[in-house]
Amino acid sequence: MTNVRTLAARTLAPLLRHQGSLKSQMAEALAQCPEKDRGLLQALCYGVMRHQPQLSRISCKLLKKPFGPRDYDVLALLWVGLYQLEHLRIPAHAAISETVAGSESLAKHWAKGLLNAVLRRYQREHETLKQQLGDDPIYRYNHPEWFIEKLKHNWPEHWQQILEQNNLNAPMTLRVNPGQISRDDYLQQLEEEGIDARACRFAPEGIELLSACDVDELPGFNEGDVSIQDEAAQLSAHLLDLQPGQRLLDACAAPGGKLCHALELQSDLNAVAIELEQGRAPRIHDNLARLNLSAEVIIADAAQADWWDGAQFDRILVDAPCSATGVIRRNPDIKYLRKGEDIKTLSDIQLAVLSNCWQMLKPGGRLVYATCSIFPQENERLITRFMKQVDDAEHQAIDAEWGDERPYGRQLMPQADGHDGFYYAVLTKTV
């Protein structure tokens, strides 16, 4: 019989060693997990990573010495136990006994007594521990210290709200395919299926579910009537201002959601998608196939031009690799995996991609720069750096009700029961 706590610990341990991501690890773990336990497995893994800063501070108080990398599976199992006691409606005795039993499945019998003692101590002393940690900003805000300080500096009026939003679960948001069904008609279908939903405020094709569900429960999903995509991410296709017959480049395209949305809005496009990682390309092909759309997919580095045939594009979407700090709700492992020094490295990559793609844009063409980051260094300041390097770029102010207007572009912050954090800027090339 599979011990779900052990499986969760084995899934999380590589992350603690900075190997892979939660999303990639979960795919393998779910394949090993009995169907009846998959919900619990996801709740444990995502819950632990969402609350990892707090769990780490608690475990430091409870342990005499820290675990080394070889025993990060035991540390992960401890966090699984602490998370259950603090956040899940599982009886304490069951949470503790099942977690302790998980050490045997890890073949680390020495950990059994340690886990039992530490978890029972937390059960007895959790109120005292919370009081002791109350003034610790990492514990209080449930984020790494570098992130908190950077937010304070960049968003002095919003930083606490951003932290609060990051600790919540993100809503499940759909994108209706307007080539197949209207949003109103699809909302009616959801109502008939007993699925509570509402139209998104800003995205014309967006629908927010009041409770998440399996995609198999969504009417017409396999037929291409609808896709899963955050409301903020749905704004990119409209910003491109697509016209029939245009040549479109989607740089850094995987998993292909924005590309597919563009093709749904304007099917008569000559679309090219660039993706750096071979392993991510199948997601693009799968989404195109399900939606009966077509685009040329090229495995290449968007910061290099060795793949380019020299024919310029009318429209370019630069969905740049970024810190993903605007989508922490959906990817809570970012709290642990991302480091402060990553931002400078990422901004240099973003500038290289943007600069390379700019030469591929026709005079009079439009480029949309996008990130799912909330840090200006990757966003408005990046555009400032770029504008100083070129003399044929014009910034186009975005007239919209969403987000906050910045010197360049608009910034969206994560919203409860709403969109993720995102940034957009629109540039045109002078003739």
Helix-and-strand structural type: alpha/beta
The percent range for strand residues is 15-25%
Mean pLDDT metric = 96
The helix/strand series, from N terminus to C terminus, equals HHHHHHHHHHEHEEEHEHEHEEHHEHEEEE
Query: How many distinct beta strands?
Result: 13
Q: Examine the secondary-structure arrangement and name the CATH architecture of the largest domain.
A: 3-Layer(aba) Sandwich
Tell me the span between the first and last alpha carbons: 68 Å
Coarse shape: globular
Specify the oligomeric state: single chain
Q: C-alpha Rg, in Å?
A: 23 Å
Number of helices: 17
Unreliable stretches covering 5 or more consecutive residues: none
Classified in CATH, the superfamily of the largest domain is Vaccinia Virus protein VP39
Question: How are the secondary structure elements laid out?
Answer:
Elements: H1 4-16, H2 22-32, H3 38-50, H4 52-62, H5 72-87, H6 92-105, H7 111-133, H8 137-141, H9 145-154, H10 159-166, E1 172-176, H11 183-192, E2 197-199, E3 206-209, E4 226-228, H12 235-239, E5 247-251, H13 257-265, E6 270-275, H14 281-290, E7 296-299, E8 313-319, H15 334-337, H16 342-358, E9 361-371, H17 380-389, E10 393-396, E11 404-405, E12 410-412, E13 422-429
Parallel strand pairs: 5-6, 5-8, 6-7, 8-9
Antiparallel strand pairs: 1-3, 1-4, 2-3, 9-13, 10-13, 11-12, 12-13
